[in-house]
TrEMBL record:
The chain crosses the membrane at residues 77-100. Keywords: Membrane, Transmembrane, Transmembrane helix. Residues 233-295 form the Protein FecR C-terminal domain. GO terms for molecular function: sigma factor antagonist activity. This is Uncharacterized protein. Pfam families: FecR, FecR_C. InterPro entries: FecR (IPR006860), FecR_C (IPR032508), Ferrdict_sens_TM (IPR012373).
Length: 303
């Protein structure tokens, strides 16, 4: 790739310093298309707001103040190239990465530059590079997301618990502070955790869970993640993880004695009815609860 061979190619292109053969080779490259999209995107660039005439005046005032004995004026096209390069640099600093985030109870759909579709669950964040996507199809995920990846090579999802590499597939990752679970719904994925020296290939119906730094493999029969249908499903899950997910979906907090929440839960709770969700979780567990008047705090008590 041009960027890898010569990191001055853009500056020399803007300044008109490429040879004819270099110019033709550059304008035939994928990087040239990226630069064209960047140039078009700058037409909507609002912050910071540049006034070319004011900036021109400030530049000449600074030069004349520091070099009163001799002033060398740049040719107009050098000046234009310098301004363009400055704007590109500032734009790169401000907008080199794209980030999507959800809050409590919110879900979001995202389409990545290659057409890959990502659905984010509540309290989740997805980040990726804004430009040169074809050279680096890597995203960072915190929280939970369902991925429908366009066929192609090099797509990776980085999490705090490891990296998932795919080749045209559908999968779901839940990477919360206290849990990591990966489900494969279509195609094939590779999970790798270099820190723990763990590695696993997953096909349709396969899943893995990281528990106390131990990678557990199991099967599932779902056709899509339950949370995309407005519910959270658990099988012999620690009750603390279920409480954490209730907090994410409803924006509530819990008060309880630690000994009261040491059990495990198997079942489902919905995302659109707080009272029903609380009953679905705590009644089978034999735990009573009180919901505050503002519906923001839940106090758990022994029966």
């Amino acid at each position: 790739m041009f960027e890898e061979r010569d990191d001055t190619i853009m500056a020399r292109w803007l300044a008109g310093e490429l040879t004819e053969s270099e110019r033709k080779a550059f304008e035939a490259s994928s990087e040239y298309a990226e630069y064209q999209r960047l140039e078009q995107g700058l037409t909507a660039f609002q912050k910071p707001d540049f006034d070319k005439e004011v900036l021109r005046g400030k530049l000449w005032a600074a030069i004349e103040k520091q070099q009163k004995t001799k002033v060398i004026r740049l040719k107009p096209w050098y000046y234009a190239a310098g301004i363009a390069a400055s704007i590109l640099l500032i734009a790169g600093l401000f907008f080199s990465q794209v980030s999507y985030s959800t809050v409590e109870g919110q879900k979001m759909s995202v389409v990545l530059p290659d057409g890959t579709e990502v659905a984010l669950n509540a309290m989740s964040t997805l980040k990726h590079r804004r430009f040169f996507w074809t050279n680096n199809k890597e995203v960072d995920l915190k929280g939970e997301g369902f991925f429908k990846v366009t066929k192609g090579e090099g797509f990776k999802v980085r999490t705090e618990s490891g990296t998932v590499s795919v080749l045209g597939t559908e999968f779901n990752i839940r990477s919360r502070p206290t849990s990591f679970v990966l489900y494969c719904y279509e195609g094939k994925v590779l999970y790798e955790n270099e820190r723990e020296q763990q590695r696993a290939y997953l096909n349709v119906g396969d899943a893995v869970e990281l528990k106390d730094n131990i990678l557990l493999e199991f099967k599932h029969s779902d056709s899509k993640p339950p949370w995309q249908e407005g519910r959270s499903s658990f099988s012999n899950a620690e009750l603390l993880l279920v409480i954490e997910e209730l907090e994410y979906q409803y924006g509530i907090s819990f008060s309880y004695e630690p000994a009261l929440v040491q059990g495990h839960f198997t079942g489902v709770f919905v995302h659109d009815d707080l009272e029903l969700a609380l009953k679905s979780v705590f009644v089978p567990m034999g735990i009573s609860y009180e919901l505050s008047n503002d519906k923001k705090k839940v106090t758990l008590n022994a029966p």
